[in-house]
Description:
The protein is of the alpha/beta class and 712 residues long.
Amino acid sequence: MSKQPKTAENSQMAGSDTLDRSNSNAKLEQLERFREDATGEALTTNTGTRIADNQNSLRGGERGPTLMEDFIMREKITHFDHERIPERVVHARGAAAHGYFEVTEPASDLTCAAFLGEAGKRTPVFVRFSTVQGPRGSADTVRDVRGFAVKFYTEEGNFDLVGNNMPVFFIQDAIKFPDFVHAVKPEPHNEIPTGASAHDTFWDFVSLTPESAHMVLWTMSDRAIPIAYRSMQGFGVHSFRLVNGEGQSKLVKFHWRPKAGVCSLVWDEAQKLAGKDPDFHRRGLWEDIERGLYPEWELGLQVMDEEDALSFGFDLLDPTKLVPEELVPVRVVGRMVLNRNPDNFFAETEQAAFHVGHVVPGIDFSNDPLLQGRLFSYTDTQLLRLGGPNFNEIPINRPLCPFHNNQRDAPHRQQINRGRASYEPNSIDGNWPRETPPAPSGGGYSSYPEPLQGHKVRVRSASFADHFSQATLFWRSMSEAEQQHIVDAYSFELSKVERLYIRERQVKEILAHIDPLLALRVAENLGIDLDSTSTSPMEGKLQDSPALSQMNLLPSDIRGRRVAILLTPGCKADEVGSLKKMLEAAGAVAKLLAPSAAALKDSDGQPMQPDGSFASEPSITVDAVFVPGGEYVLKTLQDDGVAKHYLLEAYKHLKPVALSGDAAQLAAMLGLEEDDGMLCGDSFDPLYMRFETALKQHRIWAREMRAKSIPA
Ligand code: HDE
């Protein structure tokens, strides 16, 4: 009987090394062999010669010149000189983690992709989050879109879902991407600003490009300043295609829904964090995983018939449009948990090469012209960044399933191919490796036989022409507080634009078509006279999509929330103890902070060691503040400017603040009016209950107007 290539099915039966739940550990171990552990090992050169002296170079005489002969020093410095690779042209700043994806509701009716086919099936993933504009060393908390790229190491090959934390994009056609990126990047003459879109070239481009109106509105919303990666939604953006075992196809949009809810920073906080803790998001992801507070998302699908591509009032191929969840609900198919930090940033996070074209049988593309262009770009960019076409052999990029073909050589080849014939057909090596018949019977990839016809033309489809009605929908779906933040963001950004005609164009040609009130409010802040507005026609269209407002996406618990507990000498030991215990039991993080990093004595006269000081862990790094009662609490804090600023700033940023016992007097002293989150009380238990309720709401929006007068 002639041999057949292994398929997922027959190789599992044969007990081969195809990845499934029972043998995924073995495959992971295979990947692990690339991980080095030098504990107990000798220091050597790259060729294995043990080194006796790593402190001094080889010299001609004690005070003489260094000798060329010093192969140890030369190798070390040469390697060092070549340590850098080009950073990503966009999405350069990022952080990543390992985890797994688990099917909760099989999607085998929609796709023959094996990793979505069986309840409980787990697939290893590597996920990288990023900002878009800034370089590798830029701050995490800038106003920007966030990348959300997931590599699934499936048994049928790698599938990369390379998405963002917003469901739409700035442009409709890939040919505009270099223009858009050149406009948003720092300006060419002085390379300013880093990590920000608040400058002339960005607003020049977008004010001349109405198709960007919807996405720019998203980037002016709170979505562009997420509080943590774990609190971001993720979107595949484009319509993709799923194909099932019968060859039937549907269009889908991919959604990641965070278990931690969707929460954001406030703008003042985001700006301050960029200076005080530029690694805020990276640190948060790392620390949560180290603490066992694993970030988690649900994977959902919006499924549409191809015949309906134009029936929603927009084109499903247009990446500047989302499909409102009120029209097509999201069907949840699985969950993703991130539970392991990388061992080495460069080897894993920096060398990870994502590509929208990394697909597996059962997943296919739509004709979205932005997606089509991306299919070219991602391999192309890795050729430069990772130095040649063997980048998929780098450990973080290698599939966990076997891979064989006749591609050979090129820089940094890892594989030692044994065969004598690197072509096909061949009779010398039995014609291996061989093609596999298409899925589902064989598992070979075959593209969906979509019928195509038409003339070769450079045109924008007329079905892509409406640039404003979904922007209007987004604006109308925002709460009052969210609308105010959008007005503030446009006003802030445009006030940084030096050329007044660009400001004016954005307000008159773009905002005025989204919503008259939005345009008027921004115009007023910029001193622009606005005589006419013409909102996009919304008759017959969805007027409001509650699923778009973050206010409707809050978590139901306080898992992962960070609470500062301000300690003072003589603070009530039992109160601090109960508070810490209760917060930690609910999955929150309790940070004990004191006027300095030194231990202080509590009410029992015992030393209490803080985790940090008020200055080293400022209020912008936590979600809420609790001041326990104590003999000297008032005296200590009222004389401590840093502590007073701590409370004022937390209050200004609309955070829950609880003042227990004597500490309550600070409220009146600092002008902090009691509300749903500004809490004072003598009795710990009820105070804690109110505090936890406020923490679930995350911010006290009703305080926003009042907080404007606080000078922090
Ligand atoms: Fe990307 N994009 N992109 N992009 N993109 C890159 O690939 C590109 C687009 C996204 O964590 C680059 O390896 C083009 C949309 C993420 O490593 C590059 C177009 C969406 C990441 C590239 C787009 C994305 C990238 C730069 C328009 C959301 C980071 C380095 C046609 C759906 C992945 C790299 C990571 C990275 C090209 C538009 C998401 C140059 C040409 C739309 C999350 O290949």
